[in-house]
User: Which sequence fits this backbone?
């Protein structure tokens, strides 16, 4: 809402500059968003009024705020009218069909007006608040609107068929052209002001072009009504039509200011445009709104809630200045709340009034009540932090992807789009229309973006939520997604970096689980849930305690083609919930540092190719028993130098006894047992 | 004999000083001081000197022997260090070449700032509480005293699921409701989390963003306590000179409600382009928990009071790190991520 500094001063005198005024009002809760100096030397202020304060959408309301902050007298514009002899009821008829949508409807009639340009002072006033003067009658209704905050509407009485107004819902198929020249199709959702034939205005939102005041208008019907706020809000929203009137009605006008507002406008019309005010007001009110209500305020409660020591007398003074008639009575203050403050219905509301006028700047801002229990990281948060730490340590950058996904990304991974997507009812666009069930598409998009940006090395991970349909609500669980491709390490002037491959990915996962102290993760090629987007020979399923927790591997060429990615991509996705459960509360346990020297022996064997290194290592470990501390594969060869169908593997074995030094004989014995076991089990030849 | 001694001495000194290799030097040592060396021979020939002069002659030969031995040692040292120097010279590096660095990963800036914020509140006794991204209309709106026809509830602003009664939470406030429904006061929680609003994507809007919400409920909690808490937070996060201020505002779930501002971090409150010369930056909303909210969760507003505040994580991260476009946070662009 825009207002003028000088015009406001007519309502209440104050000695603040425009900047001071803006500051004072803003810190009392009436925000001034902008100040513009006008050529006349006046200032136009742009106000942002919160939806609970429709009473501030007028100069009178703002004057009350100023009086509460600064004292002074409010000059209320004159509303006394001189009526002619003609009875208004003989000139017009009002019928209200929708009493809920329109609980009060008042009308006055002014006859014999001369519609013309407004006088200079009136035009200037409207221009000072950014309104375009139209004619004297229309301008006066606008003037009264800004003075009292109540929207009025002036009809050309002679253009209302039957000199009659019916407040009713629009009929299906009805239409009308509003003042802005647009044809509006109406439905029974809308409340209209109709004459005996057809709609003449959309109630509380905008008048019709046809019954508009024009230069030929002689007789004016002035409407001053109260409309149901939700009805106006819905209508205005559905029509996409906002006006000064709808803005106020949807926030809630004062149902008891109707007479004052209509009298003010009638008086000005007869003064400026001539004409005679007919005798009486047509008042069709289905409901009587109370003029005020009583609330009890306990000063003690106010002080305790605000954390400030404010005297009851000061509280009463603040409330009285806001026109909330207050009297101290014992330990309480009795407060009469007038109907223009519908936002005040509880003690807490009054406490806010006192707080904002007293000034939040005056509240102390030091000292925090101590708390008996320390705030700590919960086990789950700690566990997630460890996962993030481990990935960052390994050179991965953390990605935050959007949980909203394009469902076609699902099919672009070769997955059938079953009914397993959680769908939005009102997505922004089709590419953000479902909640992601997997992290991979978001990581793929990010990976693609980085490659297109010319990066030689992409390593990303995301710890993010995924969603699955469920009742009563979809389930949400945390997943870890990993994507890597390109150079393995940093470029250097004397070294060519290697290229990230499957074993780098597997190593990253092994490192992750080691750093999380989780044992027993199994990397299996016997898929329980095959993934169409993975290279079947270069991927694994991860199992923890026999349950599948995820997958890892090289993306299949067919998927890379669909996504138009040239590089080989390595990805993994893990369920974190079972991992977090295992980690919860776990604390690292110290084990004794070895005191006695160990013995190292190498073991080189030749086995048929299908034998996996895991099988061999398992056999070695089993046979090695307690004194075999560690067995590691350090060489693998399956080229021309070995017999066809065979491969050569070399292991480094470390033997150690925790309580004494091992002698050669006992090491040799175990070592030979291992050799024998491998021979028996795999037909391994020793080299 | 003395003449011979002098001659040998002169020659030896000359040869040692001209010698340029360690091998040659060793030959000279043998030549003069070896078992059959010239100086050794001189000592042996002492018998041919007149008896009266023998002691003096012997002393002169010994002096020469010591002198030559010293010279040889010194020369040897010189020659050795010269050859080592040459070898080191060969081994020397162009130390101006760049070093080889590890490639570290990076935590997301939002993750970093949320960890920092929760850390500050841990210190004040706040513990993290969580809730799901998919919420009920009740927790997100009704329980928070938001009337059924409130504009924030319409489908222009809020994402609804096809599944009836469910939506993507528009703020972290439903976590307050979940917490209060499940535990008795006193309560001190913070709820960092993802929120959703139906905003088209541009430099300052994303349909997905993060908030941190705080709630403190106990007997006698006041608006001044809220002010003290936010002041402490601002100082811990952005420096001890930070100031905060409250402006009255309106939210359905708090009464009184305020918006709070931080003194501008760019100009220390003097006024600059970022703060539009005001010296202040708008941060977010806060207030005293509305009695209706307490009634909705079964807390007695006559006994308990509390404050709640919210904070947009992206906004604070953008201020703290000087980021000008919110889309960077969700791009996955490594050139962005590796700056933090
Ligand atoms: Zn600034």
Assistant:
């Amino acid at each position: 809402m825009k207002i003028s500094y000088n015009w406001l001063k007519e309502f209440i005198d104050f000695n603040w500059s425009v900047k001071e005024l803006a500051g004072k009002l803003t810190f009392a809760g009436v925000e001034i968003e902008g100040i513009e100096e006008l050529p006349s030397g006046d200032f136009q202020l742009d106000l942002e009024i919160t939806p609970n304060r429709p009473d501030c959408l007028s100069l009178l309301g703002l004057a009350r705020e100023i009086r509460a902050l600064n004292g002074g007298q409010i000059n209320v514009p004159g509303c006394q009218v001189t009526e002619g002899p003609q009875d208004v009821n003989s000139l017009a008829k009002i019928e209200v069909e929708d009493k809920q949508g329109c609980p009060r409807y008042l009308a006055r009639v002014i006859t014999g007006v001369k519609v013309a340009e407004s006088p200079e002072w009136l035009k200037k006033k409207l221009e000072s608040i950014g309104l375009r003067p139209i004619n004297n009658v229309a301008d006066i209704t606008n003037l009264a609107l800004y003075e009292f905050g109540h929207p009025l509407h002036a009809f050309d009485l002679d253009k209302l068929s039957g000199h009659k107004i019916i407040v009713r819902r629009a009929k299906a198929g009805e239409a009308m052209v509003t003042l802005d020249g647009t044809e509006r199709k109406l439905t029974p959702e809308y409340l209209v002001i109709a004459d005996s034939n057809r709609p003449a205005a959309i109630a509380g939102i905008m008048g019709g072009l046809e019954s508009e005041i024009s230069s030929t208008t002689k007789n004016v019907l002035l409407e001053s009504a109260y409309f149901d706020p939700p009805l106006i809000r819905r209508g205005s929203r559905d029509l996409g039509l906002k006006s000064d009137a709808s803005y106020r009605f949807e926030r809630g006008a004062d149902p008891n200011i109707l007479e004052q507002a209509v009298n003010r406008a009638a008086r000005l019309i007869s003064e400026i445009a001539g004409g005679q005010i007919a005798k009486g007001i047509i008042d069709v009110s289905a409901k009587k709104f109370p003029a005020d209500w009583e609330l009890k305020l306990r000063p003690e409660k106010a002080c305790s809630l605000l954390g400030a020591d404010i005297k009851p007398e000061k509280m009463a003074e603040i409330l009285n200045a806001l026109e909330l008639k207050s009297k101290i009575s014992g330990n309480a203050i009795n407060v009469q709340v007038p109907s223009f403050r519908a936002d005040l219905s509880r003690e807490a509301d009054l406490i806010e009034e006192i707080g904002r006028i007293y000034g939040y700047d005056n509240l102390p801002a030091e000292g925090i009540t101590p708390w008996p229990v320390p705030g700590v990281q919960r086990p789950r948060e700690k566990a997630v932090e460890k996962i993030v730490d481990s990935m960052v340590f390994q050179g991965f950058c953390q990605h935050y992807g959007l949980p909203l996904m394009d469902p076609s990304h699902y099919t672009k991974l070769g997955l059938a789009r079953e009914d397993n997507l959680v769908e939005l009812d009102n997505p922004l666009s089709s590419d953000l229309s479902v909640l992601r069930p997997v992290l991979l598409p978001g990581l793929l998009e990010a990976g693609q973006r980085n490659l297109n940006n010319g990066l030689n090395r992409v390593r990303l991970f995301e710890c993010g939520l995924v969603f699955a349909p469920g009742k009563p609500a979809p389930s949400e669980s945390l997943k870890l997604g990993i994507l890597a491709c390109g150079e393995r390490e940093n470029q250097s002037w004397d070294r060519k970096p290697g290229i990230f491959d499957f074993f780098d990915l597997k190593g990253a996962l092994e490192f992750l689980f080691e750093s999380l102290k989780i044992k027993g993760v199994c990397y299996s090629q016997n898929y329980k849930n095959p993934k169409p987007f993975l290279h079947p020979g270069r991927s694994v399923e991860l199992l923890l305690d026999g349950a599948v927790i995820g997958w890892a591997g090289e993306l299949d060429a067919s998927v890379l083609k669909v996504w138009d990615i040239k590089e080989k991509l390595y990805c993994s996705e893990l369920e974190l919930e079972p991992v977090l459960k295992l980690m919860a509360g776990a604390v690292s346990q110290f084990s004794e540092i070895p005191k006695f020297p160990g013995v190292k022996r190498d073991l080189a064997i030749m086995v048929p190719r299908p034998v996996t290194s895991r099988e061999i290592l398992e056999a070695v470990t089993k046979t090695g028993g307690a004194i075999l501390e560690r067995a590691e594969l350090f060489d693998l060869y399956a080229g021309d130098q070995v017999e066809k169908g065979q491969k050569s593997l070399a292991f480094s074995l470390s033997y150690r006894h925790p309580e004494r030094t091992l002698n050669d004989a006992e090491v040799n014995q175990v070592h030979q047992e291992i050799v024998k076991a491998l021979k028996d089990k795999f037909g391994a030849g020793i080299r | 004999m003395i003449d011979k001694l002098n001659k040998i001495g002169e020659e030896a000194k000359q040869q040692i000083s001209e010698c340029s290799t360690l091998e040659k030097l060793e030959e000279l040592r043998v030549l003069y001081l070896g078992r059959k060396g010239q100086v050794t021979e001189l000592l042996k020939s002492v018998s041919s000197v007149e008896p009266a002069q023998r002691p003096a002659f012997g002393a002169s030969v010994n002096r020469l022997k010591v002198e030559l031995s010293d010279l040889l040692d010194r020369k040897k040292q010189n020659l050795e260090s010269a050859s080592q120097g040459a070898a080191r010279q060969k081994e020397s590096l162009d130390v101006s070449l760049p070093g080889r660095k590890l490639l570290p990963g990076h935590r997301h800036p939002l993750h970093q700032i949320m960890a920092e914020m929760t850390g500050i509140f841990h210190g004040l006794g706040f513990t993290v509480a969580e809730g799901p991204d998919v919420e009920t209309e009740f927790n997100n709106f009704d329980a928070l005293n938001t009337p059924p026809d409130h504009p924030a509830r319409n489908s222009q602003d809020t994402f609804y699921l096809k599944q009836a009664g469910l939506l993507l939470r528009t703020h972290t406030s439903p976590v307050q409701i979940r917490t209060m429904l499940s535990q008795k006061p006193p309560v001190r929680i913070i709820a960092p989390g993802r929120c959703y609003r139906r905003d088209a994507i541009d430099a300052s809007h994303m349909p997905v963003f993060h908030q941190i919400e705080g709630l403190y409920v106990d007997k006698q909690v006041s608006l001044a306590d809220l002010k003290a808490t936010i002041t402490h937070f601002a100082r811990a996060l952005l420096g001890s000179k930070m100031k905060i201020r409250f402006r009255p505002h309106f939210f359905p779930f708090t009464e009184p409600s305020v918006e709070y501002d931080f003194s501008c971090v760019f100009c220390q409150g003097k006024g600059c382009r970022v703060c539009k010369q005001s010296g202040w930056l708008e941060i977010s909303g806060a207030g005293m928990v509305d009695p209706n909210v307490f009634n909705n969760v079964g807390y007695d507003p006559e006994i308990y009071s509390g404050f709640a505040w919210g904070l947009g994580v992206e906004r604070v991260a953008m201020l703290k790190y000087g980021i000008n476009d919110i889309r960077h946070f969700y791009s996955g662009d490594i050139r962005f991520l590796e700056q933090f």
DSSP finds eleven helices and nine strands in chain B.
